[in-house]
Design brief:
The protein is α/β, with parallel strands linked by helices and 420 residues long. The protein has 15 helices and 18 strands. The chain folds into two domains: 5-237, Putative sugar-binding, N-terminal domain (Rossmann fold), CATH 3.40.50; 256-418, Molybdenum Cofactor Biosythetic Enzyme, Chain A (3-Layer(aba) Sandwich), CATH 3.40.980. A hairpin with a 2-residue loop joins strand 6 (124-127) and strand 7 (130-133). The protein starts with a strand and ends with a helix. Bound molecules: adenosine-5'-diphosphate and ligand LB5GJZVW. The site of the ligand O=C(O)[C@@H](O)C(=O)COP(=O)(O)O has 16 residues, from helix 1. Keywords: ATP-binding, Carbohydrate metabolism, Kinase, Nucleotide-binding, Transferase. InterPro entries: 4-carb_acid_sugar_kinase_N, 4-carb_acid_sugar_kinase_N_sf, NBD_C, NBD_C_sf, OtnK.
Length: 420
Amino acid sequence: MSIILGVIADDFTGATDVASMLVRAGMRTVQVIGVPAADAALPDADAVVVALKSRTTPADQAVAESLAALRWLQQAGARQFYFKYCSTFDSTPAGNIGPVAEALMAALGADFAIACPAFPENGRTVFRGHLFVGDQLLSDSGMRSHPLTPMLDANLVTVLQAQAEGPVGLLRYDTLARGLQATRERIAALRAEGVRLAVADAVNNDDLRVLAQACADLPLITAGSGVALGLPEVYAARGWLRPDAQAAQLPSIGGKAAVLSGSCSTATNAQVQQWLEAGKPGFRVDALALAEGIDVAAAALAWAAQQQEPVLIYATAAPQQVQAVQAALGVERAGQLVEHCLARVAQGLVEGGVRRLVVAGGETSGAVVQALGVQSLRIGAPIDPGVPWTQAQGRQLLLALKSGNFGGIDFFAKALGQVA
Ligand SMILES: Nc1ncnc2c1ncn2[C@@H]1O[C@H](COP(=O)(O)OP(=O)(O)O)[C@@H](O)[C@H]1O
Ligand SMILES: O=C(O)[C@@H](O)C(=O)COP(=O)(O)O
C-alpha cells in the first residue's frame, strides 16, 4: 500500500516532532534520514517523514534537497505533502522557509499554501500573524539569541515576505473561530487576491483542526508540527486511514544510557543545570579548546568510561558565553566544531555499549544521527509533547532527539526513566 502523507522536515528533531504528532493519532509513521535511494524499499507506513538538515544551509541547497525529497515521496505514492519547519519559525532573511515553500508549490503546481508554526501545547501560538512563545513575542523570547537563527521580529507576515517572492497574506483567528466553511471561504478569497502564502493564526488545537480540514484538498501544507494533529482525522474520514492503536509501540532495549546536549536554548540550559544540580555526572565540552585542537571528544569518552551512572556530555552554554565563543571563532565554525565533537562522542558511546541515547538540539541531533549511520527511525510514544523515543530501524538503539526548546526541566531523567 502506498503512503498517504509525505513530510519534508528541515531538521531531525523537527522530523521526530511531526512524526510523533502523527503517530499519536494512530498513523504509522517512519522517519527516514535524508532522501532515500530511488530503489530503496518503501517503508510499510501511512506517513513518511524525510528528515533533512536544511534549516540553515544556503537557500539553493535547501531547495534542491527539498525537491529531491518531494520527488521521492511522490514516487512513494504520497497523496498530500507537508513542509515541516520550526514552531519558532527558525530562519534568516535569506530563507529557508520562503524559498523551500515556493519551490515545493511550484513543483506541485500549487497556487496557495498556509504557513503556520503554531504548537499551542508547547506554548507556540500565532495571533494576528504574530508568533508568541508562552506569553512573550517571539522576538522577546530566548529565540532572540539563538546561535544560528536569531529571531528578531515576531510578525510572521513580515518575516515570511522578506523570504518569499509571491505575496504573503494573513488568515486570522476570528475567521478560524467562525469554523470550517468561513475558513475555506477566506482561503478562496486570499487565492483570488493572488496571495500565495498565508500566515495562519492558531491559538489552540481547535484552530489547528480547522486548518487541517480547510487544507485537506491542497497539495501542500507548510507548518510546524501542530497542524499535523488534525490530519489523521481528515484521512480517516476519507477512508484512506484506519488509525492503529499500536502505532507507537517500540521494543525495550537494555544497555547503557547517556545524554548529549549541543542546544543552547533557554529550556536546554535549564535542563542541563537541573541535571548537574542533582549531582548527576556531567562533562562540559569547551568550544575554544576544540578550536585549539585539543581532543575533547577523547577526553569526554575517557571520563564517561569511568562513570557508573548515565552521563551528560554537553556544550550547552548561556547566550553571553555562546556569543563570546562565536566572536572568537565565527558562528559557523563554532557550531561545526561542537557538532563534530558531539557526533564523535556519540560514536564512541555507542561503540562502548550505550543503547539509549538522548540528544538535545536539532543541528546536534542531525550531526549525531548521521555519524551513527542511522538510516531510519521508528517512532514511539512521546516523553514530553513533541519528543518521542525512537528506534534506529534494524538496530538495538533507542534515540530521543529533543528539539532545543522542548521538554520539561527534568526531561533528561524523565526520558531515561521511561526506558530504564
Ligand atoms: N558553547 C557553544 N558555543 C558556540 N556554539 C555552540 C555551543 N554549544 C553548542 N553550539 C552550537 O549551537 C548550535 C545549536 O543548535 P541546535 O543543536 O540546533 O540546538 P537548538 O535545537 O537549540 O536550536 C549547534 O550548531 C551547536 O554546535
Ligand atoms: O517545531 C519545533 O519547535 C521543533 O520541532 C523544531 O523544529 C525544533 O528545532 P530545534 O529547536 O533546532 O531542535
